[in-house]
């Protein structure tokens, strides 16, 4: 393995040809500053790998599933801090400065606040509740660009290879190491999912899945519910 760096950004992707170039170009200033950017592809057949290769440090091919992909990326990363980023999420301009502050703190992991890209008031309200819930519970989701010290991630054996809720499950274990380091300079997540499925319907789906997860339903059965719902025809809300 080559010389370590402070931060490795790990991006799990599948069929992201339409957006991967813009996503990686947004990370160019971080790469110039020494941040490692790894793309972990799950066998895309739409040219994602070809488009990503010139714009990142390395493309890794792994099995499919965010947990599997993120673990694969972490296993190849050089950074002391591992940051897991969705392909449709943009880090704030000062992200590296915030992560340097985290590095000298006594916290072991953390996340950013989130903002949705849409301009409707409902998206501001959704983001406020997401951030407030996260601060109250100490639980983060993948949309919030979770980050963790490599040593802690490895000690906890990374993400559990489950079909859904891998971010919530890992957050629950990370809380035993420390409360999260919360950065209020938000990442911006694409609101297209909310726009396509309808804001209120998506809120209801997310809370319903989370409630069923806390009641002990398996991530595999929840993933089937999620896939069935997002494939259903929608009307905008």
From TrEMBL:
Keywords: Cell membrane, Glycosyltransferase, Membrane, Transferase
Subcellular localization, as worded in the UniProt entry: Cell membrane
GO MF term (any one): glycosyltransferase activity
A Pfam cross-reference name: Glycos_transf_2
Domain Glycosyltransferase 2-like: 8-152
GO cellular component, one term: plasma membrane
KW Iron-sulfur (keyword) present: no
NCBIfam families assigned: glyco_like_mftF
Protein's UniProt name: Glycosyl transferase
Organism: Marinobacter profundi
Upper taxonomic lineage: Bacteria, Pseudomonadati, Pseudomonadota, Gammaproteobacteria, Pseudomonadales
């Amino acid at each position: 393995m080559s010389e370590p760096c402070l931060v490795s950004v790990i991006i799990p992707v599948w069929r992201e040809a339409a957006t991967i170039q813009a996503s990686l170009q947004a990370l160019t200033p971080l790469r110039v500053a020494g941040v490692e950017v790894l793309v972990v592809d799950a066998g895309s057949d739409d040219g994602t790998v070809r488009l990503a290769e010139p714009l990142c440090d390395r493309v890794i091919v792994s099995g499919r599933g965010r947990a599997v992909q993120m673990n694969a990326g972490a296993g190849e990363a050089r950074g002391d801090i591992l940051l897991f980023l969705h392909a449709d999420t943009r880090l704030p301009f000062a992200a590296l400065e915030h992560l340097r502050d985290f590095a000298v703190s006594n916290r072991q992991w953390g996340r950013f606040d989130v903002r949705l890209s849409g301009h409707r008031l409902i998206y501001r309200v959704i983001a406020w509740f997401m951030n407030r819930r996260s601060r109250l519970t100490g639980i983060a989701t993948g949309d919030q660009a979770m980050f963790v010290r490599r040593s802690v991630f490895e000690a906890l054996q990374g993400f559990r290879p489950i079909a859904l809720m891998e971010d919530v499950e890992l957050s629950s274990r990370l809380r035993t190491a420390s409360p999260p380091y919360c950065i209020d300079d938000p990442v911006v997540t694409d609101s297209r999912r909310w726009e396509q499925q309808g804001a209120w319907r998506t809120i209801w789906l997310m809370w319903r899945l989370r409630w069923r997860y806390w009641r002990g339903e398996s991530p595999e059965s929840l993933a089937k519910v999620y896939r069935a719902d997002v494939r259903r025809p929608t009307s905008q809300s």
